[in-house]
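Protein folds are increasingly written down as discrete tokens. With that in mind, we are printing a sequence and the tokens encoding its fold.
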Amino acid sequence: MKLEIGNIEIKEVVLGEEEKIDNGTLYLDPAKIKELVLTDDRLADCKIEIAKPGDSVRITPVKDVIEPRCKVDSTTGIFPGVINKVDVVGSGRTHVLKGCGVMTVGKIVGFQEGIVDMQGPGSELTPFSQLIEICLVLKPQEELDPHLYEEAARFAGLKTADYIGKLGEMIEPDTIETFETLPLLEQIQQYPDLPKIGYVYMLQTQGLLHDTYVYGTDAKHIVPTILYPTEVMDGAIISGNCVSACDKNTTYHHLNNPVIADLYKQHGKEINFLGVIVTNETVYLKDKHRSSDFVAKLSEYLGLDGVIISQEGFGNPDTDLIMNCKKVEEKGIKTVIVTDEYAGRDGASQSLADADKLATAVVTGGNANETIQLPKMDRLIGQLDYVDVIAGGFDGSLKDDGTIEVEIQAITGATNELGFNKMSAKGV
């Protein structure tokens, strides 16, 4: 499967009555975006605000971030099975508006939502401070069920990113990148002397607002399967969860998965990148056994020499991570696991809830319990009411002078297993 990514660099976003892209400036009509969002009668209001890198702006509670993009000369669309037809994506041409993101914000859905600062020490821990954020500040209807509100907010972000992305359909990209993975036997034969590497992509699927979707299907209901890496770049996987902000794989992370990007960079040079195994993180032990058995079986079936395994979340999913690692290693296949740590504010506690002697190669995104002082910002997008109760916050986190003391788990993308705290939003 071969995919061309046409990158259109967005250097400025202007709100007005025009809708176009001209010389790196994205012009948007907020009235039209609001009208699009409010076709969902579960939402009472939507305000569009812009936040730019370096601005004295705090955004919270952050739900999701989505990068605008669109298919070109194709009958398929991004986010298949959700807002477009359930067609296989990952081939042809996709235009991407780089340097900006659609961010859904507003009244809290679940307690595990986050903060993004556009300047200051907090900005250094999140990739989203480096993007021009097109914020949809959402107000749900009174007493709307949290699951319905999450769904409405999720669809608002996806529809808006799809709508904005289509403004780039006829624009000549600044750069074009090509990514290709051949059918399995052809791919093995292309680089027969290089180690065959796969990527085990663990998705948060614990339910209770901890969900991820694959081609529109709740991933808790799938058995592990194989995807071409390019399918992920076209929105085959989207976020629908409110896991701790630092851990959450936003839809932006899925679209720009840095593990996939780095594997492609080494493809044909140091490794032969064969593909992606997607799996879930369930709550019942029998489901963990089933999924980890499938991961090991598929790794063996593909003839892999090594795999990278990334995790989303912490605690209960640590068991899925270690079960995947252990069973793949027992097949004679080398593993590297990618996780973060919850080691207590002093760093002295056990970092993971599970472990095994076969987990000998670990990449960490850092200790999410570490605390940080966030200075007051001049402008707020969203609301501060929930800072004391979000994951990472505590009674007294919000100070009278407007500063905030929180664990870094409260910062969206801070120790994210896909983003890492030093990831550039424009690519790793």
About this structure: The radius of gyration is 21 Å. DSSP finds eight helices and 24 strands in the chain. Confidence is low (pLDDT under 50) at residues 420-428.
